[in-house]
Design goal:
alpha+beta; 4-stranded antiparallel beta sheet; 3-stranded antiparallel beta sheet; 7 strands
């Protein structure tokens, strides 16, 4: 295995409520059909080009009130472009807001620290936070006592993962317990080895894409 940089000690996640929802939105948007110009099919471009050419030709060779139809053709193309880009983006955001309106960031993520080791992702939090250990995501993990409590998610426990421009997402299953983790890429500014995480994730799950159905029901 190639030598990758690892952390000497866990780095504070410092995930805010705003980041939590932004991460969810980025993942939701990446899983939705693209709403940019690149999402247009060749057939759509051809149809719009033909309509525009006919409209321009009509405006050049036709005079009087008959030109209204050609102006309407041009306006129709513009409206279609706006609807397929900005309109669809607004629709995706509205659907996302409806789905996560009642979701709150788990308390344990507010004080969590993350570390990266060859054997897995280290999750650490203050040892005076017993309520955090009651969370279903943390049960079943072997905790190491000390000033902080630490648990390790082995890379082999990762069942699926994905990433956006700002975050890496992973889903894991450990001792019958299912969980997920968000890693902000801004941590790279604190020398947190995002590339190392990606390398290990690619080794265990070569194809990106979150697949919660791959997780087995809890025992």
């Amino acid at each position: 295995m190639a030598l990758y940089p690892y952390t000497l000690q866990p780095v504070a996640l410092n995930l805010t409520e705003a980041e939590f929802h932004q991460a969810q939105y980025e993942l939701f948007a990446s899983a939705s059909p693209s709403f940019g110009l690149s999402s247009f099919k060749i057939k759509e471009w051809i149809i719009m080009a033909v309509v525009v050419v006919l409209a321009i030709a009509g405006l050049i060779f036709v005079t009087g009130y008959s030109t209204i139809i050609f102006w309407l053709m041009l306006v129709g193309v513009v409206i279609y472009l706006l609807a397929r880009t900005l309109g669809f983006k607004w629709y995706v955001k509205r659907e996302f807001d409806k789905q996560v309106a009642d979701q709150e960031m788990p308390d344990e993520m507010r004080q969590m620290k993350l570390g990266v080791q060859k054997h897995g992702l280290v999750m650490a939090m203050p040892s005076n936070q017993p309520d955090m250990m009651k969370n279903s995501q943390m049960r079943g993990m072997q905790m190491r006592a000390g000033a902080t409590q630490q648990a390790v998610i082995p890379w082999t426990a990762i069942k699926s993962w994905d990433e956006t421009d700002d975050y890496i997402f992973m889903m894991f299953e450990l001792k019958g317990q299912q969980g997920s983790q968000i890693v902000p890429k801004r941590l790279q500014a604190q020398k947190f080895p995002i590339d190392t995480i990606r390398q290990h994730l690619q080794e265990v799950v070569p194809v990106k894409g979150l697949n919660p159905e791959n997780l087995q029901p809890p025992a």
